[in-house]
Amino acid sequence: MSIHSFSTRKPNGETVELSSYKDKVILFVNTASECGFTPQFTDLQGLYETYGNKGLVVLGFPCNQFGGQEPGTSSEVESFCSLNFGVTFPIFEKVDVNGPNADPIFQYLKEQTGGEIKWNFTKFLVDRQGRVVKQYDSSVKPLEIAPEIEKLLD
């Protein structure tokens, strides 16, 4: 089993098979629009622009589990990210990342790293084969992950 075994949905309800990202390095992020870490959208977009043509994709999953910092609908979140941060990487439907209703993708990511998600903007780096490489806490700035991304893209 790999991350490519899962599917998710866009804000418009369209299903996306993660197998469509085979041969890509993926950075999964649980996001929130009203968080102290929200400015990380700028650097996440920067990573996507810098490394996207080399095989990186950033996938954003809005989550309202931490301090109610993602109160809008999935479509409102997608618009917010685009308008305020120029985000062009995929933003999916809102999900839970912890608890009994945690999205299966995030259950899998946590199982693979032995980690937990303590707050918004926790990041998971996945290699081209769909293996989870590492988890990064919210305080780790996206640009700090660039050297790891470069290694996986080589």
From TrEMBL:
GO molecular function per UniProt: peroxidase activity
GO biological process: cellular response to oxidative stress
Keywords: Oxidoreductase, Peroxidase
Active site: C35
Keyword Oxidoreductase appears in the UniProt entry: yes
Keyword Oxidoreductase among UniProt keywords: yes
Stored Pfam families: GSHPx
Segments forming a coiled coil: none
Recorded family membership: Belongs to the glutathione peroxidase family.
Protein name: Glutathione peroxidase
Species of the source: Cohnella luojiensis
